[in-house]
Each structure stands twice: as structure tokens, then as C-alpha cells.
Amino acid sequence: MIAARAHVGAACEELELLQPALVRDAPGRLSLFFRPWSDPRVVWRSHSTTEGRQWSDPMRTTQPCPLSGVAAFALADRVGLVYNHTDAHARYPLSLSTSRDGGLSWSEPWHFERIDYEVSYPQFHERPDGGAHGVYSYNRRVIKYVCFEPRD
Q1: Fewest Cβ atoms closer than 10 Å to its Cβ: which of 46, 73, 83, 121?
Q2: Per-residue pLDDT averaged across 93-97, rounded?
Q3: What is the mean pLDDT of residues 79-85?
Q4: Kindly report the CA angle at 109 between 33 and 117, in degrees rounded to 5?
Q5: DSSP character for 114?
Q6: CB atoms within 10 A of CB 127
Q7: Distance separating alpha carbons of residues 119 and 101, to the nearest angstrom
Q8: Which band of pLDDT confidence, cut at 50, 70 and 90, is reported for residue 1?
């Protein structure tokens, strides 16, 4: 576990965040999206405009996080966030939301995996054509691969 205060900002001494997802979401800006260790159960974000030498204090997003991992990836004009969109302590559904303003506001979630089994620990990357490749744990038994097309 990485304490946010040690790497992302002195103002968050008690806030512990882990499993960061790093993305270059705009020219000259890096963003980190984190899951929390405990309440409040939301995805957190931090930005750097100094190539990672300094980071903003972590800020809450409006996206729920049931204490499970998140993935972030850059798209042509926005950031994609893959996460478990639920207020319950469950690791389903697996959803995709996008933001055009660095994580201040988000699109309605697209629940692309609605099965009532654990779907967690996503990892996604943008393709050159604007789509995305991704993998995640599926019911703790296999790793599932998906591919989003640009029209998705």
C-alpha cells in the first residue's frame, strides 16, 4: 500500500490510496487515478504538469469505488476509466466512463460486463485507431480480454 501523502501531496496525511493508474490525458499533463483503502469509497485523482516531479493533492471524483482496482487510459480527446460502478461492496459490474475535463465530470457509465461474479483488476490501453485493448480477472478463475472499437 502506498500512502498518498508520501508521493502525491502533504495535505492528505491520513488518506491512503493504492493501485494507481497513470495516464497522459492532455499535452503536458499526467493524471493518476487511485482506489481508496477505506471510506470514502470513490475513485480519486491527482495531476502533474511537471512530468511527475510534483503532484496535486488527491481529489475525489464522482465515480464510486467498492475498494477495487481501476484502470485509466488516454483517448483522442478524453480519458477512459474502467472500474466497478457500484456503491455496494461488490466487484461487478465492470464499467467504462469517460471524461473530457481531466476527471472533473464523467459520462454515464457503460456496464460492459454485468455478470454477478467478480470482475476486477482491469488493465486497459488505447489502440492507435482510437479503440482500446483490455484485460481483467473474471470470477477469479481466468483472465478475460476485450477490445473496444472507436464507435463503442
Answers
A1: 121
A2: 97
A3: 97
A4: 85
A5: -
A6: 13
A7: 27
A8: very low
